[in-house]
Amino acid sequence: MKDDGMDMDKNSVGYRVKVLRENQFISQKQLAEIIHVTPSQISRLERGETTNAGTELIIAIAKHFRVSTDYLLGLTPVSTQKSYDISTLGLSEEAVRRLITGRIDADVLNRLLEHDKFPQLCALIRNYFDGTIASGVMARNELIDLVTEPLAALKSTPAANRAEVVKDLNFLRSSKMGANETDIEKIKNLFLSILRDIKKDFPNDPSGAVATAAAFQSIREALPDKPEAELTADDVSSAMAAYVDTVAPMDEESKALFQELAKRMLEQAGEEPDQ
Fold first, then answer.
1. Dihedral class, residue 199 (left if φ above 0, else alpha if ψ from -120 to 50, else beta)
2. Phi then psi for 2, rounded to 5 degrees?
3. Cα angle 239, 240, 243; round to 5
4. Can you tell me the distance from the alpha carbon of 45 to that of 25, in angstroms, rounded to the nearest whole number?
5. Residue-wise over 97-121: b if at least 16 C-beta within 10 A, else e?
6. What's the burial of 270, exposed, middle or buried (CB within 10 Å: 0-12/13-18/19+)?
7. Which residues of 20-48 are buried (b: 16+ CB within 10 A; e: fewer)?
8. d(CA 14, CA 73)
9. Is residue 88 over pLDDT 80?
10. Residue 234's Cα: distance from chain center in Å?
11. Could you give the CA distance from residue 221 to residue 243 in angstroms, rounded to a whole number?
12. Dist. CA 190–CA 120, nearest whole Å
């Protein structure tokens, strides 16, 4: 970032204050009025002319932007405060307990919270709980009822266009929706859209499948060089033990025990190669 033709240190107080201010779309004058200082103080701070900003100024700026003073001073790259009162976060005690005990997948939760559309999803869910949308749907249904009443009366009288009247009447009636039908559909579509976006960036580690394929290949290469029909349970269990020994080295006794176990598993599964 350049300011007045000079490169600014991204860990400097001035740089971080400027970024925070611009992210909130407020001017230097507006910020000065909010924290009760002069605009020139903010200007000098952002330009790097104030090398020793006062403690009160740093605290006032940190409180306004809800960041830690350590972040403003360039001591940490984390802008959010490390310690929040639960009531400040708006989380219930049970929600915090579930996060701390690992009952909630924090990675998944973070990705949901960080998605641009998640606030919109929360608003839709709130409207569903409050019945805001449902009220509008019911009002719409009542309007449809008002329109269909005269059409229903026309349906019982001889008319050349009776078929069209019946068609319009059926169409209007089919347009009526359940009180929460719209809410649910919007919530579902938006939530699925968010999940699809998250899945694109979610780390997909295929190492497990690759390791499994590599394991089978290693075991196959360790088998005696003879036709498959002639392979015995001893041959296969020995190859399995040899592969495991390359991954987790075993002493001779452990290797023998593992080989015996593998042989018994093959025999019990009815997969003895020489049968």
1. alpha
2. -110, 140
3. 85
4. 18
5. eeeeeeeeeeeeeebbeebeebeeb
6. exposed
7. bbeeeeeebeebbeebebeeebbeebbeb
8. 9
9. no
10. 49
11. 10
12. 9
Q: In residues, how long is the chain?
A: 275
Give the gyration radius of the chain's Cα atoms: 35
Confidence of residue 6 (pLDDT cuts 50, 70, 90): very low
Please determine, for residue 272, whether its predicted confidence score (pLDDT) is greater than 50: no
Average pLDDT value for residue range 227-250: 77
Which residues have C-beta within 8 Å of that of residue 47, sequence separation ≥ 6? Answer: 3, 4, 14
Cβ neighbour number for residue 176 with a 10 Å cutoff: 16
Here the tokens at position 162 are 């009776």
Are the beta carbons of 117 and 193 closer than 8 angstroms?
A: yes
Q: How far is CA 155 from the centre of its chain?
A: 54
pTM for the full predicted model = 0.39
**Direct distance between the N- and C-terminal alpha carbons of the chain, in angstroms, rounded to an integer:** 73
